[in-house]
Design a protein that fits this description.
Elements lengths: L2 E7 H10 L8 E6 L11 H16 L4 E7 L3 H5 L4 H4 L10 E4 L5 E3 L6 H9 L3
Parallel strand pairs: 1-3, 2-3
Antiparallel strand pairs: 2-4, 4-5
Protein name: Thioredoxin domain-containing protein 17
InterPro entries: Thioredoxin-like_sf, TXNDC17-like, TXNDC17_dom
Family: Belongs to the thioredoxin family.
Length: 127
């Protein structure tokens, strides 16, 4: 049992990836964050706070899942009301960071992503 990690950049990579997702297999989770700056950290302060908590949690998780880090772009791209991550009916993002269970209703948004107890509930719901 292990967590399979993947990183996607921008909406087109995300769209291509979900178009090719198999119907069966381990659950897929998407973690939407702001694009990384040259220092390797997101421009989004809430994403910076959530990422180490999420990564530490995933390192301890004993489940077979696919966990996909999705870069939603730079601040200008994200703040645009027409940003495809905001308008896509499958994601409907209002804030970053956001973690969603693909083809599920569960999601964590904003500061919720940095709370271990909420991560626990999100990943346990799949059992």
């Amino acid at each position: 049992m292990e967590v399979n990690h993947l990183t996607l950049h921008e909406y087109d990579e995300f769209k291509t990836y979900i178009a090719n997702l198999p119907e069966t297999g381990p659950p897929v989770y998407f973690f939407f964050t702001g694009q990384k700056k040259e220092n390797g950290r997101s421009w989004c302060i809430y994403c910076q706070m959530a990422e180490p908590v999420v990564k530490a949690y995933l390192n301890e998780l004993k489940k077979e899942i696919t966990f996909v880090f999705v870069d939603v772009g730079n601040p200008e791209t994200w703040r645009n009301k027409a940003c495809p991550f905001r308008t896509d009916s499958r994601t409907r993002l209002m804030v970053i960071p956001t973690i969603i269970v693909w083809n599920g209703v569960q999601r964590l948004e904003g500061s919720q992503c940095a709370k271990r107890e909420l991560l626990n509930m999100l990943f346990e719901d799949e059992d």
